[in-house]
DNA sequence: CAACTCTGTGAATCTTCAG
DNA sequence: CCTGAAGATTCACAGAGTT
């Protein structure tokens, strides 16, 4: 059976409220990090591009929305999102939320405020990253892991706690903060049983969906930006075709 | 010139209060984690051995003290420690605090409450760790990195953000939560310039001191337990002798 | 085909400058 | 003095191209 996918376009919180109870097995979320948002002072307000793209970067990827909250607002907003995700997820289902080092603590808080059981922190090690003179470079992102009540320990599934993988580059790259499928997302979707459904409330260019569909899982995604909604749709259609073949 | 070391025996907070202002260049602290201490309910109350030692472990290492606070108390207590450390550290000096995944957020909070500038999170990847059925294994510990005001960016020092190293085992192992010198502590002490002084308020078996002294840094350590105070003293004396040779 | 060179890049961070 | 925008700086590593 070919895995199916649904791509909603709209505000994440609004669309989540329309989804039925216990309709997915796992949630994988990559919210806008609002990095540098420790204080209003440090937060550069205008756009994501200015924050995440080097001045001389050759690519010309479009901007994305929703990256301008301060840390208190981020906690409240993310908590509301995760409360809805809990309702939509079946008991025993998993939650994975990406963050950078600045937002890791507040993300763990939001996960627990949202009613999830905090199960641990998974590390995404990025071997290619900028050096830092006089100290340690920021070479990792963090994935907070939670479950809707106790999770099922019967499956023969043993996942590592640290993943090492590089961001897609060149023509492979469709989104500023795109995550790699091989070595990362393809592993993470394994917390959803085959034939189950994965939800991504911030689908972006759809990498999570590609990982899900390519490995026999259904996918439900939400994306606000029209451009990325279209990109995700195209990539998912391709992935689905590859599986069917 | 042979690096010197001083080992105080006593309660960390009390001894710290007796140390002079701006007398060290870097603080590397490995406080008792109080793991499982998110809630009183989850915390196993009796001793560190029950928490950190597998039932079938062959070794017979002594217990250590101070591992029975709940999370609110841990925040307050660690903040007080780090406030004192800030006073003792010269402006521009570095702070590194170990934690497991449960305590990572509260450790980042305590660091900032203590007046340090939070600079990032360093990952200690432990490749050999217990597998976790049905999910991700806990294969990492976290090191919160701070500085006393802006840190010096002139030294030609470029450190990675993720370190991979295994816990000492067998006869090498002198403490339940001992950290490896090679591949971890030997790298971390580099945030202190050669000829400078490293402070460890929870010296344990003295691994941080061994890394410091072996690489030409002076060391000040504090340890409460008589047994570990003696172990650390012996290991440091050996390390000093090796350098002098 | 393996080994090597070369070029491009980066969820970054700091400094400078204008308002 | 405080705030925000723009420009400069950094080097380990991936990946393409070449010997």
Automatic annotation (TrEMBL), chains A, B:
Its EC number is 2.1.1.-. Residues 24-232 form the DNA methylase N-4/N-6 domain. It is an enzyme of class 2 (transferase). Pfam families: N6_N4_Mtase (PF01555). GO terms for molecular function: DNA binding; N-methyltransferase activity; site-specific DNA-methyltransferase (adenine-specific) activity. InterPro entries: DNA_methylase_N4/N6, DNA_methylase_N6_adenine_CS, RM_Methyltransferase, SAM-dependent_MTases_sf. GO terms for biological process: methylation. Residues 29-52 are annotated as: Disordered. Keywords: Methyltransferase, Transferase. One of its GO terms (cellular component) is cytoplasm. Belongs to the N(4)/N(6)-methyltransferase family. This is Methyltransferase. It comes from Allokutzneria albata (Kibdelosporangium albatum).
